[in-house]
């Protein structure tokens, strides 16, 4: 009996121990679950803090890129400005090149001959082709009569152009003063008055006026004078004058030489019996 | 190497155009003083472009354009008219008979270079 009750008592004790073990295990499981939850929370927090760090990093990177972008935009603007500057300089250089070519050709042609009529033809060519005049005349001074005599013309009959006295009207005044005349504004008139030019240029060697170029009408496509026209007028004033003067002297001397030569030939001839 | 035939009675203009054509890479300028001389040059040289004046002695530029356009050997050669005749009707007339372009005098060499480049390229 005692033995039996002893076994029952031990079984109860074992059962209680087992129950306590079960409770302890359940507590452990709960604690484990709580700790897992806590770990998950902590992991989330850590991840969030990493994200914030990344965002900060990205923001910094964006700022840097924006600065770089702005600096590139500024450089682009500067390059664009430089390009515009170069383009306008290129246009200027091209225009200057054109002007120099015109002046070079005019000067070269003017001094390419010593034939008086050829020089006059070249002056006409320059005024027609490089300046763009349709009607004009070249007058040369006759020192004996003190009159300007028309010697060449374009678009006008030479015989219809009157001689002009020194100091008379626009043309005579230009010859007297040695200063060019430029009318205000260019009008394309159908009939011109030989005494009323739109431009009159003295042909001068230093202060000595040899004659004048008198322009009455420009081509229909020519509405104004440009810088190169004034440069050409200046060139004509000096170079055409020297070319005309030297060619006239040369032609006269050639003529005299021929006369003298003929005279000498005549003298050399043996008298016929 | 483009061969450019300049047909102009004025030596001043021939020299100025020749000067401008030096800016066209490898261009060779052949000069003629009138239409008849130009036709002779056309038969002896391979010409890639003609620059012609209108008012010339012997044969004028308009006659030259019509003869060039009427000849199967030369009809495709581009022609630029450079002239003092600046009125719109003159331009229309030149273009109507077959000129490719029309440049009134006085010319700006940079305009001529641009025009020639656009045609020969």
Structure overview:
The complex is a heterodimer of chains A (273) and B (121). Chain A is built from four helices and six strands. With 273 residues, chain A is of the alpha+beta class. A six-stranded antiparallel β-sheet of chain A has the order 3-2-1-6-5-4, sandwiched between helices. In chain A, helix 2 runs antiparallel to helix 4. Chain A is rod-shaped and about 200 Å long. Chain B has five helices and five strands. Chain B has helices at residues 11-21, 35-44, 61-70, 88-96, 109-120; strands at residues 3-7, 28-32, 49-52, 79-83, 101-104. Classes of the chains: A alpha+beta (273), B alpha/beta (121).
Query: How would you describe the oligomerization state of the chains in this entry?
Result: heterodimer
Parts with pLDDT < 50 across at least 5 consecutive residues of chain A: none
CATH level-four homologous superfamily name of the largest domain in chain A = GAF domain
Reported by name, the CATH topology of chain B is Rossmann fold
Can you tell me the CATH class of chain B? Alpha Beta
* Spatial strand sequence of the major β-sheet of chain B: 2-1-3-4-5
Outline of chain B, from the CA principal axes?
Answer: globular
Q: Helicity range of the residues of chain A? A: 55-70%
CA gyration radius of chain A, whole angstroms: 54 Å
CATH topology of the largest domain in chain A: Beta-Lactamase
Bin the strand percentage of chain B: 15-25%
- Overall CATH architecture of the largest domain in chain A: 2-Layer Sandwich
Largest interface: A-B, 25 and 17 residues
The stretches of 5 or more residues of chain B where confidence is low (pLDDT under 50) are: none
Which CATH-level-2 architecture of chain B?
Answer: 3-Layer(aba) Sandwich
Shape of chain A: rod-shaped
Overall mean pLDDT of chain B stands at: 91
Topology pattern of chain B, helix = H, strand = E: EHEHEHEHEH
Q: Tell me the distance between the termini of chain A.
A: 207 Å
């Amino acid at each position: 009996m005692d033995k039996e009750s002893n076994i029952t008592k031990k079984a109860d004790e074992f059962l209680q121990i087992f129950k306590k073990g079960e409770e302890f295990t359940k507590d452990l499981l709960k604690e484990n679950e709580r700790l897992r939850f806590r770990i998950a929370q902590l992991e989330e927090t850590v991840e969030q803090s990493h994200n914030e760090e990344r965002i900060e990093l990205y923001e910094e990177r964006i700022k840097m890129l924006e600065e770089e972008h702005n600096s590139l935009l500024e450089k682009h603007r500067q390059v664009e400005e430089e390009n515009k500057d170069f383009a306008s300089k290129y246009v200027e250089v091209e225009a200057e090149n054109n002007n120099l070519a015109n002046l070079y050709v005019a000067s070269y042609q003017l001094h390419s001959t010593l034939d008086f009529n050829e020089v006059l033809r070249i002056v006409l060519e320059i005024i027609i082709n490089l300046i763009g005049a349709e009607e004009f005349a070249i007058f040369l001074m006759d020192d004996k009569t003190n009159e300007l005599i028309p010697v060449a013309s374009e678009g006008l009959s030479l015989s219809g152009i009157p001689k002009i006295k020194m100091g008379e009207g626009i043309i005579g005044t230009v010859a007297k003063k040695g200063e060019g005349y430029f009318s205000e504004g260019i009008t394309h008139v159908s009939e011109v008055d030989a005494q009323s030019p739109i431009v009159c240029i003295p042909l001068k060697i230093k202060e000595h006026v040899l004659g004048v170029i008198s322009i009455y009408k420009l081509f229909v496509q020519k509405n104004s004078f440009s810088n190169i026209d004034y440069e050409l007028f200046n060139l004509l004033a000096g170079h055409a004058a020297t070319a005309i003067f030297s060619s006239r002297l040369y032609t006269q001397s050639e003529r005299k030489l021929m006369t003298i030569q003929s005279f000498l030939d005549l003298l050399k001839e043996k008298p016929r019996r | 190497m483009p061969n450019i035939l300049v047909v102009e009675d004025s030596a001043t203009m021939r020299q100025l155009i020749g000067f401008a054509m030096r800016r066209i890479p490898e261009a060779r300028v052949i000069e003629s003083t009138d239409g008849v001389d130009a036709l002779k040059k056309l038969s002896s040289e391979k010409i890639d472009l003609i620059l012609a004046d209108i008012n010339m002695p012997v044969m004028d530029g308009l006659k030259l354009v019509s003869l060039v356009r009427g000849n199967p050997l030369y009809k495709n050669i581009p022609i630029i008219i450079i002239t003092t005749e600046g009125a719109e009707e003159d331009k229309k007339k030149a273009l109507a008979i077959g000129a490719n372009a029309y440049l009134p005098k006085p010319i700006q060499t940079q305009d001529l270079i641009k025009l020639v480049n656009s045609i020969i390229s």
